[in-house]
Amino acid sequence: MARRDYYRDPDAPRANSLVPGASAIVADDQGRIALHRRTDNDLWALPSGTMEIGESIAQTAVREVKEEIGVEVEPVRLVGVYSDPQHVFAYDDGEVRQEFNVCIACRTVGGELTPGDEAREVGWFTPEEVANLAMHESVRRRIRDYVRAPNRQLLERARFSRINAARRLGPDVLNVPWHAAPAGATRRPRGGR
Q: Are the beta carbons of 58 and 23 closer than 8 angstroms?
């Protein structure tokens, strides 16, 4: 199904749908980011898609990465929640969806970078190379937010440990508190001294 993205466009159609979705920033050991060139709009994008009933938003990200680029991943940290009402997607069936996307940084645990049904091609790109690719501004923003995260590697290691603990406790890894105290800070338990 063809779609057209409208971003801060006064001529954009009015949204008639809101569907939770996830996108994933998958980086390799060299800091390159996995992207795919979409078949519906020919733009480079992060793996992304809509949440299905019965799955967590983290599970959505993991599933979409496997389907769209062939890589198996584990969620590492939250990059951001993107819900700009001035960003809508118009589909040829009449649906006009307002953006609502949770972007999650992931690390690879298996698989090979391979184009899925929604991708013309896939590749690993440095953040500098991303600047030269045809891409929607909302995808660039997520990548910028990922790259600019303070203490990114430290946060990823700390949160990865929390995710492993969450796996032992239950399937929804994003139910683990994502607000970590800054390095060197002490945290007082809630309701206590």
A: no
Residues 6 or more apart whose Cβ sits within 8 Å of residue 161: none
Residues 103-135 have pLDDT tens digits of: 999 999 999 999 999 899 999 999 899 999 999
Domain count across the chain = 1
Token pair of 179 as six digits: 């607000």
- Strands (DSSP E) contained in 144-193 are none
Would 94 be classed as within a structural domain? yes
Q: Which domain holds residue 7?
A: 3-175
Count other Cβ atoms within 10 Å, centred on residue 17.
Answer: 13
Distance between CA atoms of residues 193 and 187, nearest Å: 10
**The CATH number of the domain where 62 resides is what?**
3.90.79.10
pTM, two decimals, is 0.76
